[in-house]
């Protein structure tokens, strides 16, 4: 006997699977996390969610020993090693190892910016970018240099700053061999070889 969902037309051979599926359309979420109150349709989703709070990571990569709380995250991680990219953009043919990365990528084409700053109204395509943006308003600089105490909005800015202390210059010119601590300075230096002048006085 087949069970037909009248909402979307999907069919099921198992009644229990059919009943669970109907809850998706009703947005029925009876399984609630006691810690953060997030609700789920299925109990096993709640069980997997609990691992976030317990910090338990039972799923371990056999290649690099990195551990994860959820099996699906481990599956996604394996693609780092296999270089598999099963999720392709049908607009520009870029491919990604994770479906959520493809979803974020699509916003480049659609210009969708679903995350809006409540202070100034500026909108962003990713929540992580909005989080960093809020620090402009709060003046929060969570990444501090343990050498001189300078603080930064983003970790990448701190990493770049550290090079001023270590005197490390990882970016070298392929033409003359001159070295730079920041890639942006190397790009500007290349203009001395190409004689290109991208910034003209108006």
Automatic annotation (TrEMBL):
The keyword Secreted does not apply. InterPro entries: Znf_C2H2_sf, Znf_C2H2_type. It is found in: Nucleus. One of its GO terms (molecular function) is zinc ion binding. Residues 3-30, 31-58, 59-86, 87-114, 115-142, 143-170, 171-198 form the C2H2-type domain. It comes from the Eukaryota. GO terms for cellular component: nucleus. Keywords: DNA-binding, Metal-binding, Nucleus, Repeat, Transcription, Transcription regulation, Zinc, Zinc-finger. PROSITE patterns: ZINC_FINGER_C2H2_1, ZINC_FINGER_C2H2_2. Transmembrane segments: none annotated. Belongs to the krueppel C2H2-type zinc-finger protein family. This is Zinc finger protein 91.
């Amino acid at each position: 006997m087949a069970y037909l969902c009248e909402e979307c037309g999907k069919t099921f051979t198992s009644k229990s699977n059919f009943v669970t599926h109907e809850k998706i359309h009703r947005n029925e979420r009876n399984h609630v996390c006691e810690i953060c109150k997030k609700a789920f349709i299925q109990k096993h989703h709640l069980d997997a969610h609990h691992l976030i709070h317990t910090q338990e990571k039972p799923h371990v990569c056999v290649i690099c020993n990195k551990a994860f709380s959820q099996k699906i995250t481990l599956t996604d991680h394996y693609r780092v090693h296999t270089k598999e990219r099963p999720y392709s953009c049908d607009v520009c043919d870029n491919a990604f190892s994770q479906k959520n990365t493809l979803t974020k990528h699509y916003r480049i084409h659609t210009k969708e910016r679903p995350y809006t700053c409540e202070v100034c109204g500026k909108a962003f395509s990713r929540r992580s970018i909005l989080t960093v943006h809020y620090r402009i308003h709060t003046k929060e600089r969570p990444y501090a240099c343990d050498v001189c105490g300078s603080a930064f909005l983003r970790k990448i800015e701190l990493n770049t700053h550290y090079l001023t202390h270590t005197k490390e210059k990882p970016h070298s010119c392929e033409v003359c061999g001159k070295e730079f601590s920041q890639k942006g300075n190397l790009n500007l230096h290349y203009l001395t070889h190409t004689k290109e002048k991208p910034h003209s006085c108006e």
